Amino acid sequence: MTYEEMPYAGIATFFKAPLVTSPTSANADVAVMGIPWDEGTTNRSGARMGPRALREASTMWAFQNGLEPLYDGEARVRLLGGVRWADCGDVALGPMWPAERYHAAVVERLLPQIEAGLFPVTLGGDHSITYPVLKTVSESRESEPFQLVQFDTHMDYWHEEGGQRYSHASPIIRSQEAGWLAGLTQYGIRSLHTRGDNIALAQSRGAHIFWCEQAKDTLVDELVEHLEPGVDAYITFDIDALDPSIAPGTGTPEPGGFSYYEAKAILLAVCARCNVIGMDLVEVAPQYDGPGQLTALHGARLILDTVGAVFRRRDELAK
Q: CA triplet 121, 128, 294: central angle to 5 degrees?
């Protein structure tokens, strides 16, 4: 990344990173890829436009001169110094593809990036994209389980939704049943629930559920103390975990939710305690966004905060 043009000029890749279809560890540390898919939605569609919105919003912070670090004075940390980004573009998907074909297309694009040693950042798309992403992560690890840390309003633990096993209401239950997860932590759960949400089933399988109001009233260190220090963890962040007053652009908004600072604090705590191996951010639907791209701005900033914390931990461990 060079400081040769203003953030609003040129092609709006994520964080103005070079557009590299097949990056390697020789030219990148982070691989950003979009999955513009929203045919798993059960309410308002539109998240297929999420990757484009997140990319455009992220350019606001693309004033980094070369690989110099950025300073977050509120968190009192420097972040992203020396971190090389590559934007890999989007997975090519056609309308009304069957789940198997759609999943296979994701695995085909994402697996080489992970096997090259890059940190994967996936832009949704609705939350159904997390299932093939986690499938890819599992394949790259030869089926060694990992912790899943989920930020969400909804548990996404439905057996089926409208007869479909792979909607955005089911990626978590499908991934746990596939044997990929060593543990499940859910932050920010709220809304009204039916028996189909399978709360008791998730708890019987060991899920740590932190209801949103409970999480807001709990010290951050206590929210992560159940996570084994240094454990491999993947983060999936549904933007509807945020309060719709700051992130209205999503398909299934719910009253309440985290503020930016609350979500950021938990994300940074997870990254400081765990070895985070990848992340996705899903359900940004810019058609419903407020003025100023609020939802996409919050999503893009939380990605930068999280990736910064991941590489800060790596640098500290390397010292």
A: 60
